[in-house]
Amino acid sequence: MKAIGSWLARWWTIGVPAIGVVVLVAFWAVELNGVAVAIIAVVLAGTVLAAVQHAEVVAHRVGEPFGSLVLAVAVTIIEVALIVTLMTTGKDSPELARDTVFSAVMITMNGIVGLSLLLSASRRESTAFNAQGSGAALATVTALATLTLVLPSFTSTPGPVFSGPQLVFAAIASLALYGMFVFTQTVAHRDFFLPVGRKGQPLTEDDHAEAPSKRAALISLGLLLVSLVAVVGLAKLESTPIERAVTAIGLPQSFVGVVIALLVLLPEGIAAAKAASLNRTQTSLNLALGSAMASIGLTIPAIAVASIWLPGALHLGLGSSQIVLLVLTVLVSILTIVQGRAVRLQGGIHLVLFAAFIFLSIAP
Fold first, then answer.
1. The pLDDT of residue 5 is above 50
2. CATH (domain of 64)
3. pLDDT digits over 13-45, tens only?
4. d(CA 145, CA 183)
5. Residue 358 — very low, low, confident or very high, per pLDDT cuts 50/70/90?
6. DSSP conformational letter for 128
7. Nearest C-alpha neighbor of 162 from the set 94, 100, 102, 105
8. Which of 47, 102, 155, 192 could form a disulfide with 20 if both were Cys (CB 3.0 to 4.6 A apart)?
């Protein structure tokens, strides 16, 4: 029985992406009914879980902090693909990119961070992480969010939009900030982003499992790419039903951005929760803040380029209630990270802010 369980555990991560591609091809040009939508949703969820597994294998092979970048970039690819798809084929929604990116920031900085801190501190008095690395990540996320999501609401350009030159500057600044952070994380100060023990000492090796072989990592990399293609395609098929469901339930159209962000950040959330349960809080924070950073630093430039072909204006400026939530999130995050140690209370505070974001998205 143990051998059968091991075989199933190994082969489902290969079979599910293949099934995802088959389902994608089968339903690509077909009018979807309720049964088809349900099948696609189940296969999509399984493909996302398979992507998580393969990303973790690759991440374990390359080690921290490089591993955290793998999933962050993969998630951003899915996010950009979905935003562009919905903006070109769905309803006219110039705020979709803003809503999705802001949702990603709130989900990662409050939902994932809060859950990670709560899980990591649940079996001990507190959990430790490197305040230098997490502080640098938080500073970068704050600068990115302010320049791209807050500033458009306060420029001389009418409406919550950038002018052409302003959008170009914001895109270049976003890439510059993200590039500087990646260099800091992977080259200049890699030790700032390594997991730490209870006393704050760096843990340079993953002590709970042997690193996979190069061959296994390359296979997982290939299957990760296949999984991402399947996820993007299946999510595209689900995009119209998602819009219809949001409208039918009576939710604001902006909630579509929340749904997209929740969908694409599912792999990050699962991976961060697993790391937190192993008391590797720094890895969880790397994943959460790295995803928020990639969501802004890579998505905004990509959407800026795509806006050349996209119809209508690109509304990036946040509303007043969203700005309040962002400012509160940044302030609480600073107080959480500056000490390099957190207790369950701080995780709970972030989760309450996440709940406030979801509630205000439903009832603005």
1. no
2. 1.20.1420.30
3. 888 889 999 999 999 878 888 888 889 989 988
4. 20
5. very high
6. E
7. 94
8. 47
Retrieve residue 85's tokens: 């798809």
Tokens standing for residue 206: 């993953």
- Position 24, amino acid: L
Residue keyed to tokens 């929760």? 273
User: What pLDDT, in 10s, does the model give residues 116-148?
Assistant: 999 999 877 789 999 999 999 999 999 999 999
Structure tokens at 36: 């088809």
Structural domains in the chain (count): 1
Q: Rounded to an integer, what distance in angstroms lies between the CA atom of residue 144 and that of residue 297?
A: 7
**Burial class, 271, CB count within 10 angstroms (exposed 0-12 / middle 13-18 / buried 19+):** buried
CA-to-CA separations, 262 to 99, 108, 167, 195, in angstroms, rounded? 12, 10, 26, 26
- Closest by Cα among 109, 145, 95, 97 to 252: 95
Residue span of the structural domain in which 338 resides: 2-362
Dihedral class, residue 159 (left if φ above 0, else alpha if ψ from -120 to 50, else beta): left
User: Hey, what amino acid is at 175?
Assistant: L
pLDDT band for position 229 (cuts 50, 70, 90): confident
User: What residue type is assigned to position 326 of the chain?
Assistant: L
Beta strand spans in the chain (E): 127-128, 341-342
Q: Is the pLDDT of residue 241 over 70?
A: yes
What's the CA gap between 318 and 332, in Å, rounded? 19
